[in-house]
Amino acid sequence: xxxxxxxxxxxxxxxxxxxxxxxxxxxxxxxxxxxxxxxxxxxxxxxxxxxxxxxxxxxxxxxxxxxxxxxxxxxxxxxxxxxxxxxxxxxxxxxxxxxxxxxxxxxxxxxxxxxxxxxxxxxxxxxxxxxxxxxxxxxxxxxxxxxxxxxxxxxxxxxxxxxxxxxxxxxxxxxxxxxxxxxxxx
Length: 186
Description:
- The chain is of the alpha+beta class and 186 residues long.
- The chain has two domains: 1-95; 97-185, ATP synthase, E subunit, C-terminal (hypothetical protein PF0899 fold, 2-Layer Sandwich).
- It has four helices and four strands, in the order ααβαβββα.
- The protein has helices spanning 3-96, 100-117, 127-133, 165-185; strands spanning 122-125, 140-142, 149-153, 160-164.
- A four-stranded mixed beta sheet has the order 2-1-3-4.
- The longest helix is centred in the N-terminal third of the chain and has 94 residues, at 3-96.
- The radius of gyration is 46 Å and the shape is rod-shaped.
- Keywords: Coiled coil.
């Protein structure tokens, strides 16, 4: 075989090897491109799903903020109405003190004080209330402050009870507020 044939043979063999290498590289590149495209599709799909989740979370947060704002507005309105009602109760003390119901309430409060402290308890009232009750009750004393209701104290001063309308309203405020809050929670 001559040099030409050897060269031709080497050229053919080299050409075949190059074609095979190029073909293998194309197959490998196509495989890697397909794998990369598949991976990119998965990443895009995951990103879209994550975006949907984040969008839903954002909507939930916005709804929660709106609900909190609504509840704060409602609580403020209820609190203001409650305070106004309590203030109206305090303002109504003077009118209430001139009713028969108030006279009955005084009698009930005095009886409660006697049950708790004893029949010899000192009962303090304002001047006008003493005038109404001095015929029926003993141990009535004028309280140095103008109160509606009674203030009772044992003879030795160790036990006392503030049963003024003001104190009764104050003690009821917390109970009423709790009931309003409980109802709001339902």
